[in-house]
Amino acid sequence: LFTFNIDDSLIEGLAGVSVPDAEVALLTEGQKKPKLKERGPVLITHTGISGPAALRLSAFGARELHAVGYKAKVLLNWLPDMPGGNQGVFEELEISKKYNPAKAIGGSTSPTLSLPRRLWQAFVIDVGIDPEKKWSDVKQTDIRKLAMRIARCELQIVGKGTFKEEFVTAGGIALPGVDMKRMQSKSVPGLFFAGEVLDIDGITGGYNLQSAWSTGCIAGRSVAQVVNEHA
């Protein structure tokens, strides 16, 4: 489990901004459509994105990302509940334009489709719209660009969270080779395993802590039993 380091001017200066429900998908080189996607809260950090959705995506995509040196893209739909995807967002933006013609599109009272205002203003600037421009003066082509950036926001991953910020590691001793009732190696009697040395990684920190505690308890009891048998 790790956060994504992102290289994109869109999120510069937005550390601390969070969206309660977004869809995050992973797109590696050669893929036309993402195979992995997660949905949930997303947090923008000083270095990229984090939050439950991003962390779950990192868990399921850990091996794939490692294989490409953590160089890939994430596709974010910041409004996953909006029917129609990109077209649906465009239509909602056209409604906002219709009913708020005199308001500045990046102003403090402009509609934001329920997105955090700082994020909304970043989208407006990112697609080349003057935030002081009135809704009525915004071209339809720019509205479409804005809709695309919101519904299919492509960001470049340039790495993962720095060492010691990870929550758990993927990989380890293959479980088929372990007697899970005793946490003992099936091929080397007297060798016991516990915690992250095993090929176990859950989608959140709590699962991994419980796994470490439980396997550690079983392994410890098994070792004690062996010692007592040979005492």
Description:
The protein has helices at 52-60, 62-67, 85-99, 117-126, 140-151, 205-229, and strands at residues 4-6, 18-27, 36-44, 48-50, 72-77, 153-160, 178-179, 184-185. The chain has a six-stranded antiparallel beta barrel. The protein has a two-stranded antiparallel sheet with strand order 7-8. α3 packs across α5 (140-151). It is an alpha+beta fold and 231 residues long. The longest helix has 25 residues, at 205-229. β3 and β4 form a beta hairpin. The protein is elongated and about 85 Å long. It is 33% helix and 19% strand. The two termini are 42 Å apart.
Please supply descriptive tags for the structure shown above.
231 residues; alpha+beta; two-stranded antiparallel ribbon; 6 helices; 33% helix; elongated
| Helical/strand content category | alpha+beta
User: Strand order within the widest sheet?
Assistant: 1-4-3-2-5-6
Structural Rg: 24 Å
Calculate the terminal CA-CA distance, rounded to whole Å.
Answer: 42 Å
Strand content: 15-25%
User: How would you characterize the largest beta sheet?
Assistant: 6 strands, antiparallel, barrel
**Overall number of strands:** 8
Shape: elongated
- N-to-C SSE series? EEEEHHEHHHEEEH
Helix content: 25-40%
List the uncertain runs: none
Mean pLDDT across all amino acids: 92
Enumerate how many helices there are, as a single number: 6
- Which assembly state applies to the chains in this document? single chain
